[in-house]
Amino acid sequence: MTQPFSFSHLILLTVALASPLLFAEEPKESDFYTITQIPTPDGEIVEGGAIELLPDGKVAVCTRRGQIWTIENAFEYPDKETKWTLFAEYLHEPLGLAWKDGWLYAVQRPEVTRMKDEDGDGRADIFETVSDDWGISGNYHEYNFGSRFDKEGDLWTALCLTGSFSSETLFRGWVLRINEDGEMIPTASGVRSPGGIGFNAEGDVFYTDNQGAWNGSSSLKWVKPGSFQGNPNGNIWYEYADGAIGDRPVEPPYSDDGSRTITERENIPELIPPAVILPHQKVGNSPTVIEPDMSGGKFGPFAGQVFVGEQTHSKVHRIFLEKVNGLYQGAMFPFLEGFQSGNIGLRISEDGKLFTSGSNRGWGARGGKPHAFERVDWTGKVPFEIHEMRALPDGFELTFTKPVDPASAVDASFRMEAYTYIYQKAYGSPEVDQVKPTVTVASVSDDGRSLKLKVEPLTKGHVHELHAGGLKAKESGNGLLHKDAYYTLNEIPE
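The structure assignment produced for this chain is given below.
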């Protein structure tokens, strides 16, 4: 039997018409960025370690099992079927690919190799060693990650230690450069367990290091030439560096109590603090490759920012960087999750396609699959996000991808906690020296695209973890797609 239309029905209908967003579903990541799984060849295990885009429109991917594949129609799939061709095999776990002057360069554990398909059959038939001036013992941990070429024509590599606590072969725990003549140039020491090496939009070099000895949490680190990155186990090789990066740094304290990076910066001039700390477990466990968005806006509203892969959590992070008092620092924002395996390789094309490849071998990955090759496409819709988070002398300035509702830009919409990590020889660190700053909204711009937060106190050397759960977009009334940000405050602006 049909129920009579009551006064309560009329009230509900009136509220729904007056507030069309009241029952609307909040946007989700897939509304703005879609993930397409690109099938790999039947029977093949494509544990992708790095990706390069080739001049003929193909995509190259190297695998942890020593193969390099080229893929046709990776940009067009599923409208066009992909074709995978085995370009090379029997390499030693390549984790870097770069194209230059008709050669495909691969960074393997023991060497940098370049290769070419001379007869045009799609398979490399010329292989040349470019450089092999470092050691290898066969230990499982001796990974070697490679960049693409920088503006000077150099290729950068980041060498893992032999194990978590030792460097048993030459230059393990270092960043090296390989120039156009194949000369190896020692460039920075103090590396523990990198997961990738690459550039920001300005061309400066960064690598990701994983939590462990002398690394309280995983982080994105700036490779300033001549710098010490914090782990002293590879510093035994300074005498073989021929003065390329100066004298061996002072040893950090080995006491059981440890220290703090902010303290040891005063004692070790070469020590460069992490540009952006990636709080362990909160945002991920194993950061990997670094990829700037150089698409000029074709990948969405974050042009010029940096994207970082995350292997264990099967995610991609977004990072805003700025330089304050000569040091890089900045904020990490969640960006996209739901990948099928652990992201190790990333590559963004000029037309705004992001390719990722990965593996779950060794540490596992939330994605669950042993390997995957995927493409991310921007739908053209702009999410409501914190676009940038900049340090101020008394707080932070936030900019947004869309105007904020001024009624929501109030103190109660924000909360913050700050903390750091012990700088110690032991494996990792809990969050320590916790502070709960008071956050107040100092001002909101007339166009609603930025606001300033006063934060008392600001703590130099701490991660400032911001939660903006109450902020709403002016037009839609929706909250931020990602409500959290993690800013590493190495320096407070004057």
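Interim note for the steering committee: The mean pLDDT is 95. The two ends are 73 Å apart (CA to CA).
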